[in-house]
Structure formats: structure tokens, C-alpha cells
Design a protein that fits this description.
Chain A is α+β, with helices and mostly antiparallel strands and 801 residues long. Chain A contains 25 helices and 28 strands. Helix content of chain A is 42%, strand content 18%. Chain B is mainly alpha-helical. Classes of the chains: A alpha+beta (801), B mainly alpha (64).
Amino acid sequence: MSTATAQNTVCYHCGDDCKEIIQEAEKSFCCEGCKQVYLLLDENNLCNYYSFDKNPGLKAKGKFISERFAYLEDESTSKKIIQFSSETQNNVTFQLPQMHCSSCIYLLENLHRIDPAIISSQSNFQRKEVFIKYNPQQTSLRKVVELLAFIGYEPYISLKDSVEKKVTSFNKKQIYRIGIAGFCFSNIMMLSFPEYFSSGNIEQSGLKAVFTWLCFGLSFPVLLYSAAGFFVSSWKGIRQRYINIDIPITLAIVVTFARSYYEILSGTGPGYLDSGTGIVFFMLIGRWFQDKTYDSLSFDRDYRSYFPLGVTVIQGETEKNIPVTKLKKGNRIIIRNEEMIPADAILMQGNASVDYSFVSGENTPIEKKKGELIYAGGKQIGSAIELEVVNEASQSYITRLWNNEIFNGSKNAEKSFIHPWSRYFTLALFSVAAAAVLYWWFVNPANILPALTSVLIIACPCSLLLSATFTYGNMLRLFGKNKMYLKNAGVIEALAKINTIVFDKTGTITENTHSSILYEGTPLSATELQAIRSITRQSAHPLSKVLSASIEDDQSVVTQISSFKEYSGLGVEATVNNIAVKLGSAQFLDENNDLHLTRDTGSHVHVMYNQIHMGKFTVSNQYRNGIQSLAAKLPQYELHLLSGDNNTEKKNLEQMFGSKTNILFRQSPQDKLNYVQQLQQQNKQVLMLGDGLNDAGALMQSQVGIAVSDNNAQFSPACDAILNGENVHLLDKYLAFAKAGKNIVTASFVLSILYNFVGLSFAVQATLSPVIAAILMPASSISIVLFVTLLSSLTAKRLGL
Amino acid sequence: MSALFMLIGISIVVAGAFLAAFLWSVKSGQYEDDYTPSVRMLFEDNSAEPTPTTTKTVKSTQNK
């Protein structure tokens, strides 16, 4: 071990601690990869990269193997990725989840300086995308991707992209509608002022006509274009015999405009165009406010987003990298270290140690022998293996889960809770209108039509819509501030109805990165610990990595390794300072059971020093902060825990979740889905929390599925909400907030009904003048918006969010 | 009072021009990304469309 003078030198490129320092041009780097990237940037005068952000580089994981991108030369694959192609220019958009700072933007927009065949590149930071134009005659898609991967920004290209073209559309239509409605509304409002403030008697005769006809003209775009969305939606509702909130809204709009046009054309009045256009404008804003989207998150991932795009196939004597979709039964494939097995296959050659953590949730790799079937979705840890494909990629055991019909429908669609309210509202409205008509029929028939239309105009359902949209819009943002990202507003309502919660264990309530290590046995000396550390640093096994990270580096102890042999999945044998050390599972150290080591399940690393068994390290899950007390804060919910792992943690979990919670282990993805279905058959409203592909079925099936993720670059399966791991313990507060939201909307309905009473009192008397309508409508809208926004923000504060 | 008619007319036209400008700006994609341009303008030597000869000569004079 080298004795470095500065203990904590930090790599100039990526900022990681340098275990061995590589010097170049007066700067230190932690590895050859970082140094190479620096040299490339320096050569092309792009060292400004380092000036925008501290150590912005991204460390390369392992050696850069260009073979990995060979599948991009396949025409059918590249056609799906390239968006536009001509002789001199190809356009392509890549998703780069590693983008995290201004330096990234700088470098990605200056790619043309590294490779002149790239014409230009533009990045979109919020969506974490880069749009590249390159010249296909001078370079290829594969070379562009290789360049990006080399500098640390390997694009995320998944099987999904090769199957369906990704369309990210920015909703321009909505913005046009709002813009036009706002323009017309404000101008009509201003042009109506003279009318109102002069009590209907404008001095200059020509002016009045001009204003009136201008208002008339300005109202058309609003009625025909901006309000079109409401008409379409209510038509759909009528066709399905379902009264949604848009039906009374359409009624109000149509009646307002009809009466106004009649009054203007017949010269009997100025009309209510300002109120009419105002309604449309405010409601469109409400809808836009509620549609908050998160550009860089995706709530719709399926297995194809996780599977690699290409795989190495052995054809005769040569190896070729082909797209996964083209794998056929009988193909021989090579899977290297850290690569995913894309199809069910039989092990032909090599030592397989497969990590199924995101399929089954089990952390420890499973060892497979020659001739055994290996399921798709696992990652190979260790040396390369050769497999023979049994099922095509789309027909494997894990992908068949997606044939379940739950993945085809859409959840939490239109049925929102304001719909029952809209039904009551419509009924109440018609009864009031009918009453007014009857009254005036007997008293003064001339007033029937004015009264009827006034009622329909003023009883504005827009305040109903505004209550819901602004409350939910604000809540979505407050949730987002607390790192819980909901797919849409419907999820809030679904959360409020929940009465049962199902937890996954690994990755959801446990930390993905840290583990706790316990040693039992004869105490180890400093020399012995350092020996273990240096040995485990050489091993690729996840348990070794955890173990070596937990032992602190002691520079005073010199360890010399003279021999080292790793038995994939079993253990490690090495000679350190001339003493034989063996680390590994009980089977490895004690094949013939001479020492009677307990062979219990779980992650144990036994230590044998010079043929003497010293003890064992037990690696156990580290639970997330605050989980211990979470179960106690959820007394009103029925709790369940499903884990794909073995039952080593049973005692701990029972202590944390209480005896009433149902805890099951060794659950496969299909088991979890079935379990949720069973609960739903008992009419329970289920909330599922999971993190990996193994929870995908259950997440889709439950009324609300929350995917727990630790960083934005981590991929979560299809879900309704993405929750950051550090905030899982706030689950009780989130649920309480969702419930409170429902109450806030109800409270603001009551407020809007008050406004309606005031307006209706004028309307039934047929004395509703445009001035009153023009005052009431914005007043009610604005006050309701303020009310719900303040109330929801205060509620969040009170809950501690 | 004909002045008033004219003024109203002109103001409608001007307002309409602004509306047209707004619609055009949405159409041309200016609102698609409202964060990255704020970072991009702080880069000193960035140019969207590269002109190799001029940048190279500028670079060489700067390096001297």
C-alpha cells in the first residue's frame, strides 16, 4: 500500500476520494478513466467544464467497452431511435439521467468541438435530454453514443425506445386557449367599463355601438376555440350517460353567450360577455394549474425500460452484438459482469452468480450450476458466462407478468369525487330554475326568459371546478416540495380513500445502499481486520464490497497478499502476510461439516484464519430513518408486509410492525399481485409501496401504487406516485394531507354556494344586470382561489410538511 | 371625437399584434424549456452554430 502524504486528495474530475492518485498536468485523478476524459476536454479547449461547478465529472463504472453499443449498427434498431434522417443530417434525442449541473449543459452543448461530425447539440435540463444533429456521412449513431458514454453521459436507451417511438409533447393547445381567452376577456372587460360607469348613457352615440360590436367580435374566439374543450368533454359525458362537471359548465357558457348575443342583436341590452369570457378564462387557468407534470420523471415504466437493448450472441466462431428483440430460442449468448440476462436461458459455461434484486427483492446472488435454467431479469455478478436461450425475451417468466390485463387499462381516470357533487349541483340548479319559471309564469310571464337565463348564468359551476383544480394543483406542488411526486390530481382523491397499506421490504423500508454488519466470534486483531479488508477489496461479490467498506483503512498495518483465489458465489481464499485466510459461506469453509458451522439462511461471511474458525460477519438490512415508528403512526390502517427475500428479518419486522400485521416472505412478483387482488376482493382500498420491478404487478393492481426511489436517476416501475426514500417515514402525514384536501374542497364548495345564493337572489327576481354579474363572477372566482390556496398551504404547514 | 374612434382602432391593432407575437412564441417552442436558456447565457464562448474558422482564429489570438 502506498503511503500517500495527503490522505484526502479529491479527484479533479469527479470529486471522489483518490485511493491511488494518478497525476497529470499538476492535477490528481482517482482513476485512468477520469484522467482520459480530462485529457479529451483539455485537448479541445473545453476546460471551462470544470469552472461552472465543482468536480462535475461522472465517474466511469468499469472499463469502457465499445462492444456494448454494437447493436446500434443494426438498421431496424437505429431507425427507431433516430427521429429524422436525411443524407447530410440525422436528428436524435437522448435521455441522459446523469445531467445534474450547469457544467453538464456546457459540455453537452459543445460536443461539436470534440467531434466535428456533430453539427449541433442542445440540451433540455428539466427533461434531462439532449437533442443532437449529426452528419451520418462522417459519423454513426454508435459513435455518437460511444462519445457520450466516454465522457460519462451514457444515454439511457431501453428496449422500450426501440419498440415505440417516444413522444414528448408540450401541451401548446392549452396555452393557446388560455392566451386567447385572457386577451379577449380583458379587452371585453375594458370595453364594458364605459357602459357600466355611465349607467348606460354614453354621450357619443357612435361610441356605444363601437364598443358593443367590438365585444361581440372578441367573444367569438373564446366561444369557438377556448371553450371547445368543455364542449367536447361534456359531449363525451352525455354519450356515456354520465354527468361530469363539464355539463353544467357548458350549459352556463352556452346560455350566457346566447342571451348576450340575443340582447346585442336586438338592441335590448349590453349582454354578459365579460362574465362569459371570464368564466372560460378562469376555468382554463384552473385546469392548467392542476395539470402539473414532472418532466424528468416517468410514471409509466415497464420491464422494457430495464432490459438492455443489445446482447452478445455467439454465431459460429465470432461474437456479434444484436438487439434483444431478435433473440431466438437456441441462440448462445454471453453475459458479462454486471450485465442483465434478457431471456430465460440455460447455463452452458461459466460460474453463474445471479443477482435478482430487482426481480425478487433478494439481495444475495443465487449460484447456478451448469445445465440449470436461469430466469430473465437477473444480473450476472462475476466472470462472463455462456447461456443458451430457452424463451424469447418477450416470453420470459418475468415479462409474462405484463400480459396481465391490469397493465392495459388506465387507473384513476375520470371518476373524481367532484362528479357526485356535479350531479347534485345540476339537480339543484334545475330545480331553482324550474321554481323561478313557475313563479314568473303566474306573476309576469315577460320575466320568465330573463329569470331563467339569469339563473343559468349566475349559478356558476365554475366555482366548483375552481375549488377542486386549485386545491389539487396546490397540493401537487406541496407534495412535490416534500419529494413525493404524484402522477396527477386523481391520485390525491384515491389516497384519501385508502384503508389498507401493503409494504415491500427490500429497498422500500430498507436502505438500498447501507447495511449493518455484526461480528460474532473471537475478536479480530487489527492485522486480521486489515487482511480481511484488503482481500474483500479484490472481490466483486456484493457482500465483499459491504464488508470492505465497513472496515476502516489502517495505514499503520502493512498487508501483503501473496495469493488470491475467488470462488464465485462461495468465498475467497487468500494468503496474507504468509497466513492462509478463508472467507465465505459456511459451505465453503466447511464442506464436510467438520466444524459444525450453523448453516442458517441469511447473509453471513465466515472467517477462517490459519485453519481456525474465528467467527462470522452477519450483514443485515439497514432500515430507513423513522420506519421503526411509522407503523405506530398508522393505527387506522390495516398493514401488510410482503417481501421477496428470505425470512431472516422476521423478528425485527414483527417488532416494528406489531403483531397484527401480516408478514409474508419469499413472495414472487406474481404472488404480490395476487395478494393485492385478494385484498381488493374483500372491498379494501389498497395502497402499495414498492421499489423495483418485482413490485410492478402489485403497484399496478392496487388503487394507489407508490414507487420508492433514492435518486432521480434510479428507475421506478409504473406507479401513481414516486416517493423519495428519505421521506418514507412521512407516509402518515401524506395520507392525512390527502384526506384534508378533500375537506378543503368541500369547504370551498360551501363558500361558492353562498356566492350563488347572493347571485341567485338577483337572478330569480330577473334583476340581474350585467354589472352585478361582472362583479360577482371575478370576485367569487378570485376569493375561492385565494381561500383554497391559503387553506391548503396552512394545512400542509400544520401537518409539518 | 373621431380621434377616439381612431385611438380605439389603433389600440386594438397593437393589442392584436402582441397576441400574435405571443402565439408565435409558443408555437416556435420558446416555452418548452424555461430553465436551460438561463444557464446557457452565462457561458462565454458558447455558440449554437459553430463557425470553425473564426472560432479557431479567435482561440489562437486568445492563447497568445
